[in-house]
Design a protein that fits this description.
By secondary structure, the chain is α/β, with parallel strands linked by helices. The chain has a single domain, classed as Aldolase class I (TIM Barrel). The chain is 43% helix and 15% strand. Strands 1-2-3-4-5-6-7-8 form an eight-stranded parallel beta barrel, surrounded by five helices. Strand 2, helix 3 and strand 3 form a beta-alpha-beta unit. Helix 6 crosses helix 8. The longest helix has 18 residues. It is globular and about 45 Å long. It binds 2-phosphoglycolic acid. 2-phosphoglycolic acid binds next to strand 8.
C-alpha cells in the first residue's frame, strides 16, 4: 500500500512573513497526517519557518556539490541541517529556464539520497512531444537518466512527480485517463530498471493544475499516489482540501 503524498510547490512565492501566516491558518489533524504525507516546497528563506509544524518541508533546489566556491548555491547538508526532508529535482521550470540537464538532475538525486533525504523527482513531456507521439520516449529518457546509479534501496526513497509541462500553471489539467496512462508508463519504466515488486512500491505524484475541483478524480486513479501542486497550494483552505481528497482515498 503506497501512502499518498500531497506536496505544495510554492515556487518563488511567499517570504517568511507570509509563510508564517500560512502556517497559522493551516491546521492538520493527526489522523490526516497518519494517512497522507503532506509536504511544502518553499523558497530557501522560508524553510526554517516551516520546519517543525507536523508536515514535511522541501527545498525547491540544491547543489550537486558538497561545498566550495559556488556562489549562490546551497548544499544538501545545509538543507538537512535546517530540517528539510525532501528536495524537488528536475522540475520543468528548472529544466527549461535554468537549463538543467538529466545528468545534473541525476547527480542531485544521488546526492539527496546519500544524505538520507527524499528527492521529489519531476518528469514530464511538452505538448509538442506528446502530440508528436514521443510521450513514452521522453519519459524513458528522463527516468533512465535521472535514476542512473540509484540502487534498489534508493529507489524506494524516491518520489516521482509526473508533470506534463503543458498542464503546469496553465489551468489545463491532464484528464484522469491521460494521467493514469502516463503513470502506468512511468511505473513500467521503473519496473524495467528495477523490478515489478519495487516499482509497485514507488510513489508517483501527478502535477499540473491539480485543484480542489479535479483532485478527487485524479487521486482516485490506481497509479496516482498524490499530487505536486503549485497554484492551488498557495491558500491554506485550497491546499487542505486537496489533502482531504487524498485522505478520502485511504480506506
Ligand atoms: P500548478 O504547478 O499546480 O500551478 O500547475 C505544479 C508544479 O509546477 O509543480
Amino acid at each position: 500500500m503506497r501512502k499518498p503524498i500531497i506536496a505544495a510547490n510554492w515556487k518563488m512565492n511567499k517570504g517568511p512573513k507570509e509563510a508564517a501566516e500560512f502556517v497559522t491558518n493551516f491546521k492538520l489533524d493527526a489522523s490526516e497526517l497518519e494517512k497522507v504525507d503532506v509536504v511544502i516546497a518553499a523558497p530557501f528563506v522560508d524553510l526554517s519557518v516551516l520546519v517543525g509544524n507536523g508536515f514535511g518541508v522541501a527545498a525547491q533546489n540544491c547543489s550537486d556539490q558538497d561545498s566550495g566556491a559556488l556562489t549562490g548555491e546551497t548544499s544538501v547538508a545545509m538543507l538537512k541541517e535546517v530540517g528539510v526532508e525532501y528536495i524537488l529535482t528536475g522540475h520543468s521550470e528548472r529544466r527549461s529556464i535554468f537549463g538543467e540537464t538529466d545528468a545534473l538532475i541525476n547527480a542531485k538525486n544521488c546526492k539527496i539520497l546519500d544524505a538520507g533525504l527524499t528527492p521529489i523527482f519531476c518528469i514530464g513531456e511538452t505538448l509538442e512531444e506528446r502530440e508528436s507521439g514521443k510521450l513514452e520516449e521522453v519519459l524513458k529518457t528522463q527516468v533512465t537518466e535521472g535514476l542512473k546509479g540509484i540502487c534498489n534501496e534508493g529507489i524506494l526513497n524516491v518520489v516521482i512527480a509526473y508533470e506534463p509541462v503543458w498542464a503546469i500553471g496553465t489551468g489545463v489539467t491532464a484528464s484522469k485517463e491521460q494521467a493514469q496512462e502516463a503513470h502506468v508508463i512511468v511505473r513500467r519504466l521503473v519496473a524495467e530498471l528495477y523490478s515489478t515488486e519495487l516499482a509497485a512500491q514507488v510513489r508517483i505524484q501527478y502535477g499540473g493544475s491539480m485543484k480542489p475541483a479535479n483532485a478527487d478524480e485524479l487521486l482516485g486513479q490506481a497509479d496516482i499516489d498524490g499530487g505536486l501542486v503549485g497554484g492551488a497550494s498557495l491558500e491554506p483552505e485550497s491546499f487542505h482540501s486537496l489533502i482531504k481528497s487524498a485522505v478520502a482515498t485511504v480506506a
